[in-house]
Amino acid sequence: MRFSLQDIKKQVYRRGGELYVGLHFLRPGELRLEIERLIAYHEQLMGQPRRQFSQDEARACVGDYRLAHCLIAALSAWYHWQQRSWSEVFQRIGSESQSLLEMAGITSPIQLRLALYDYVNEHQQGFLDAQERAATLQKFSATYQLGASDLEYLLALDSDDEEVLTRETPRPPSTQDVATLYNQWAFESALFNASNVRFIIDCNAFEHAHSGTDLPAGAAGQIGTGIGTVVKRLCYLARRLGVYYDLTYDPSSANTAPLLHLTLYGPQEMTGAPQQ
């Protein structure tokens, strides 16, 4: 699950006649205690049905509504809702009831609801009022040696409310894992909604990163193999992904390093808005 731009905490402001949107990214250590509480809330409800998960209680762990909404979404990378299987439920109820249901051709909640529908049509002329409901369900469940509460649960087993919370990883995520993923998804949301994205690349920084040593004197005005490799890689990926781009180079001056300006355009900027 990714974030919608409207769900992310942000600031909208004007500067020099231009409209800016500043997204809120988590700094190291920010909301550490709040994220710990949110993780603990998920751990507390492991194996419990979705109907016991309270969005309000989860948001209260963080306090800020927008941040809480996105952090809960980020935790879906580790926690998810899963339906219990038919056979798993009968490990608790008993195999004898499962055998009786299978003999009647009932092996899923859908088939059980259909069997109950047929039973009501046959014994109640297709209508079951509230006063007779409990007695009728009791008679129907007794046919398969089920308790009334077990029958009610099996009838709703495939509903969203009965999904149980599970974790896909052996251990819970750390607060830093959650914060890092939040920042990543917030940044991806900004990119996804942008008409164009501009990067200013310091050539010397790439050269230094490539060589792993300090630059020699007089090398500031040259593009070496480090930035050249990066440029080739960017151009290759842009062509492969079908992204339109512009790439310009600013030579160095006495006070500035050489810079590359990379602009990536969204498809609408090149092809125009859809006409149909």
Q: Any idea what the radius of gyration is?
A: 30 Å
Overall number of domains: 3
Share in helix = 40-55%
Order of helices and strands: EEHHHEHHHHHEHEHHEEH
Percent strand: 5-15%
- Per DSSP, the total helix count is 12
Number of strand segments: 7
User: Biggest sheet, in brief?
Assistant: 3 strands, antiparallel
Classify the secondary structure makeup into a structural class: alpha+beta
Q: Kindly state the mean pLDDT as a whole number? A: 84
**In angstroms, what separates the terminal alpha carbons?**
29 Å
Overview of the molecule:
- It is a single chain.
- The protein is an alpha+beta fold and 276 residues long.
- It folds into 3 domains: 5-83 and 162-189, no CATH class; 86-157, no CATH class; 196-271, no CATH class.
- The chain has helices at residues 32-44, 55-60, 65-74, 86-93, 95-103, 109-123, 130-142, 148-155, 175-193, 203-211, 225-241, 267-271, and strands at residues 10-15, 18-23, 79-82, 164-167, 196-202, 244-250, 259-265.
- Strands 5-7-6 form a 3-stranded antiparallel sheet.
- Strand 6 (244-250) and strand 7 form a beta hairpin.
- Helix 1 packs across helix 9 (175-193) and helix 10 (203-211) packs across helix 11.
- It is elongated and about 90 Å long.
